[in-house]
Amino acid sequence: SQQGEEDPQALSIQEGENATMNCSYKTSINNLQWYRQNSGRGLVHLILIRSNEREKHSGRLRVTLDTSKKSSSLLITASRAADTASYFCATDLGNNDMRFGAGTRLTVKP
Amino acid sequence: DGGITQSPKYLFRKEGQNVTLSCEQNLNHDAMYWYRQDPGQGLRLIYYSQIVNDFQKGDIAEGYSVSREKKESFPLTVTSAQKNPTAFYLCASSDWPKLGEKLFFGSGTQLSVL
Prior knowledge:
The complex is a heterodimer.
Chain A: E1 5-7, E2 10-14, E3 19-24, E4 31-37, E5 43-50, E6 55-58, E7 61-66, E8 71-76, E9 85-92, E10 98-100, E11 104-109
Parallel strand pairs in A: 2-11
Antiparallel strand pairs in A: 1-3, 3-8, 4-5, 4-9, 6-7, 7-8, 9-10, 9-11
Chain B: E1 4-7, E2 10-13, E3 19-25, E4 31-37, E5 43-51, E6 54-57, E7 64-66, E8 76-78, E9 87-94, E10 103-105, E11 109-113
Parallel strand pairs in B: 2-11
Antiparallel strand pairs in B: 1-3, 3-8, 4-5, 4-9, 5-6, 7-8, 9-10, 9-11
């Protein structure tokens, strides 16, 4: 079964706007990771946040983690058409088990 | 270039046929994984290997088999017992001996049934 659930399932915005995607999970985790997938390609790691961290930044990406609510958010600021892709959260349960959500399909219109 | 190479990019299987998907990495990673992705769904773990000559089943191992004879290679065989094999298959590797931390993915193999 899938551990992480992203919402929304699909998001369409204009270039320059911010995009926010959310991930909820069910059980305790060691860390949570966000990945990006262009259509028909493999996934690319974006950022990892550990269970004892609350916020992390990488370039235009900002990730938050709320372990009390079992949720995380990924914010992409000043979006570009090249950001169009599917974004997945993955939770590391710490027992040799990493689970992926179904993803959010982001479309950034030029 | 360092990375993970999956081949072929597209593969077709006939009824009752076994097919093998190739995954090779030159990242010197100990851990390697196979995931299946169906449309509109996330990735589901088929098998993973933490070290040569050892591997463990994931959530959906039935109908699949793997081997890990070399550190660089982790081929996946889709057997005739897998009744719904049509999917996008992704191979990944990790710098850690345990599952988790950052995964590096190949570009995937699309398997279809004729």
